[in-house]
Design a protein that fits this description.
Layout lengths: L13 E10 L5 E11 L8 E6 L3 E3 L4 E8 L6 E11 L5 E11 L4 E8 L7 E11 L2 E13 L5 E6 L4 E3 L6 E5 L5 E8 L5 E2 L1 E2 L6 E3 L8 E11 L4 E3 L3 E5 L5 E5 L6 E2 L6 E5 L3 E8 L2 E2 L10 E11 L4 E10 L7 E4 L5 E2 L3 E7 L5 E6 L2 E6 L5 E8 L3 E10 L9 E7 L6 E5 L12 E9 L5 E12 L7 E9 L4 E8 L7 E12 L5 E13 L48 E3 L5 E12 L5 E12 L13 E2 L14 E5 L6 E3 L1
Parallel strand pairs: 4-10, 12-20, 22-27, 29-35
Antiparallel strand pairs: 1-2, 3-5, 5-8, 6-7, 6-9, 9-10, 11-13, 13-17, 14-15, 14-18, 16-17, 18-19, 18-20, 21-23, 24-25, 24-26, 26-27, 28-30, 30-33, 31-32, 31-34, 34-35, 36-37, 37-40, 38-39, 38-41, 41-42, 43-48, 44-45, 46-47, 47-48
């Protein structure tokens, strides 16, 4: 409204001139304007008093200074006066009191400055009262208003990070801010000369404030925190210098590399670099190691280097290397030395140093293979030559050490020269649909074992190499052993006619080439009943062989159909007679020829055989023949007998 009021302007007895001027916000000054006031002094006037505070506002904790003026306006002296000055808060609670007892001379003016300590007072509007006691009552002489305000800034400090700290980003700033008079309104931080970033109160931690994580570039930085209270008082913390380091320590190892396998000493040299390196350790095989120390002990070594910096960045380096000063040895594990093998190639296995390179050769065959992590190696299909073979091998280990030659001596004997076979007699003819009884035998006459040999019985039509029926199996034969088997071959699907029963084995020859090899054969036929007859078992000898001699043939000798030999009218028959006891033996053999009209033509011959008890000696060939002749135009010869001792003296072959 433009009005101003000045209370308790002091006056003196007599005329008083009061002047006033005014200055607006733009700096324009008006006036002065004057008024005149006259004060009459007379007998019995009362004591006058006024208060003049030093300021309308007093900072909390600062002394409240009040100017006091007391005046006796009377020409007569005043006796002792009881005066008091009180300070009351906004709720009229007394905060402080000042008392004065004094007499006043006539027309005396008394001035003084009174101070009150505000340290313990609350912030408030203060009521200043000057009173005098009259007739037992306190009478107010003057009242003034003063405001006690907060001029104290908050106390603020950086709690984290610490000064000179080295940290990884992002950065979180934590600070404390407190004020005993006014609540904290705002806490902020600033990194370098960047924008101010607000901090939020930390739950459960009174007076603590924290920023969100702040991305800060790697390098050196300075940060401060400021706080402001509700009275707009503001303070700034001391600056904190920090470094942001997000780089792991750099570890380099020279002189040896991870995975090295060497046959010489090494000198590892380790270097670690970091702007704020804190700790580092170097260990070789778990023991402290000094960079630049030579390593000369053989075996596998582990070098470990660890480093970390003040920011918590960490690095680790590990290398594994091997020092090998020993030459590798080759040990053959298969086949065994001195083995006799029936195949033209063999897989050779052995052991040596782990991961070594094995060089192997034999009679023009050369191979190079690497052993596995356990030192085991294998060379498949090593070519052999017929007879003795000396396989030579040596190894070079990963460190470059070359071992001595190791020789494996083995012998290759082709399976075709080791296996023999035989077929016992089969019926000369059978009615359609009946099974053909077959008994065959195999013998390994070599000094090496035969493994998994394919064996086949084929029943072929005469003049054809294609079997009409067959039987297959695989046989293992150790050196010097035999194998026998009896089977029944079905013939229900076969046509009527003449057939050859052939015993075959799939064998390798001396050139390493495998093929089916014929070991023995017999003739038989499938005939409709009512055609050419077939005698009963042992009919040939039923009434002509007596006594002990019959023991040779009484196991079911059968008739066999036959054909002419060399264009003649002679015929042939195959069968087996087993003589199990060595020694002199007198055998009466009678050849019987049965013609188509069932007439029998008999021829007899006797021979003396002496079978030695000692094996391994080849006897002279002993043979007798019974030859029968007939008119080939009207009669077909069916039998010609021939006895020949077989090697080993365990059987005689009859043709």
């Amino acid at each position: 409204s433009g009005r101003a009021r000045f209370a308790s302007v002091p006056l003196i007895p007599g005329d008083n001139a009061i002047n006033a001027t005014a200055t607006d916000a733009a700096g324009n000054t008006g006036g002065p304007v004057a008024i005149s006031v006259h004060v009459e002094s007379g007998t019995g006037a009362e004591l006058l008093g006024s208060l003049q505070p030093a300021s309308d506002e007093v900072a909390h904790g600062s002394p409240l200074q009040i100017g006091l003026r007391l005046e006796n306006p009377d020409a007569n002296a005043l006796p002792q006066q009881n005066l008091r000055m009180r300070v009351l808060d906004s709720s009229l609670q007394v905060l402080g009191t000042w008392n004065l007892q004094r007499a006043f001379a006539a027309n005396e003016i008394y001035t003084d400055t009174v101070e009150f300590d505000t340290t313990t007072w609350p912030l408030s509007a203060l009521n200043l009262q000057l009173e005098v006691e009259r007739a037992g009552n306190w009478v107010n002489l003057d009242t003034r208003m003063v405001t006690l305000v907060d001029r104290t800034p908050p106390i603020v400090a950086v709690l984290a990070p610490a000064d000179a700290a080295v940290l990884r980003g992002p950065l979180t700033v934590r600070a404390s801010a407190s004020d005993v008079l006014s609540p904290i309104d705002l806490v902020e931080t600033r990194i370098d000369q960047g924008d101010w970033i607000p901090l939020s109160a930390v739950s459960g931690a009174d007076g603590e404030f924290e920023s969100v994580p702040v991305a800060v570039d790697e390098g050196d930085h300075v940060l401060v925190v400021r706080a402001r209270d509700s009275a707009a008082n503001e303070s700034t913390s001391a600056s904190v210098a920090i470094a942001i380091d997000m780089t792991d320590p750099l570890i380099t190892i020279a002189g040896v590399a991870d995975g090295d396998v060497l046959n010489q000493n090494v000198t590892p040299v380790i270097s670690i670099s970091d702007a704020h390196l804190a700790n580092s350790t170097i260990r070789l095989d778990g023991q402290p190691f000094v960079s630049g120390t030579p390593v000369d002990s053989g075996g596998v070594h582990n070098l470990d280097v660890d480093a970390d910096d003040l920011a918590g960045n960490a690095s680790a380096a590990h290398i594994r290397f091997t020092l090998d000063f020993d030459a590798p040895l080759v040990v053959f594990t298969s086949p065994a030395s001195g083995s006799v093998l029936p195949e033209p190639s063999v897989e050779v296995t052995g052991t040596t140093e782990a991961s070594a390179l094995v060089h192997l050769g034999n009679a023009g065959f050369v191979a190079e293979v690497q052993a596995d992590g356990n030192g085991v190696f294998s060379v498949p299909a090593v070519t052999l030559v017929a007879g003795d073979n000396a396989i030579v091998a040596h190894a070079v280990d990963p460190a470059g050490n070359q071992g001595p030659d190791t020789t494996l001596n083995i012998r290759y004997e082709p399976a075709a020269s080791m296996l023999t076979g035989s077929l016992e007699s089969v019926p000369p003819s059978m009615p359609p649909g009946s099974d053909l009884p077959v008994r065959y035998g195999l013998a390994n006459i070599g000094v090496g074992d035969l493994s998994d040999i394919p064996v086949r019985l084929e029943l072929r039509p005469d003049g054809s190499g294609t079997p009409a029926a067959q039987y297959d199996r695989n046989v293992d034969l150790a050196a010097g052993t035999t194998f026998e088997e009896s089977i029944d071959m079905p013939t229900s699907t076969l046509a009527i006619g003449d057939y050859q029963l052939v015993l075959l084995a799939y064998l390798a020859n001396g050139q390493g080439q495998s093929d089916w090899v014929s070991l023995a054969s017999r003739s038989t036929a499938i005939r409709t009943p009512g055609c050419a007859g077939r005698g009963p078992p042992d009919r040939i000898f039923a009434d002509t062989f007596d006594g002990d001699a019959d023991a040779i043939f009484r196991d079911g000798f059968e008739w066999f159909a036959s054909t002419g030999v060399d264009g003649s009218d002679a015929a042939s028959l195959a069968g087996i007679m087993k003589l199990t006891l060595p020694g002199p033996l007198q055998v009466s053999t009678r050849g019987v020829l049965r013609l188509l009209d069932d007439r029998l033509i008999r021829r007899s011959v006797q021979m003396a055989l002496h079978l030695p008890a000692e094996k391994g000696r080849q006897p002279p060939a002993i043979a007798t023949a019974v030859r029968a002749s007939a008119d080939a135009r009207t009669h077909k010869p069916e039998l010609l007998a021939l006895l020949v001792p077989r090697p080993g003296y365990s059987a005689m072959e009859m043709h």
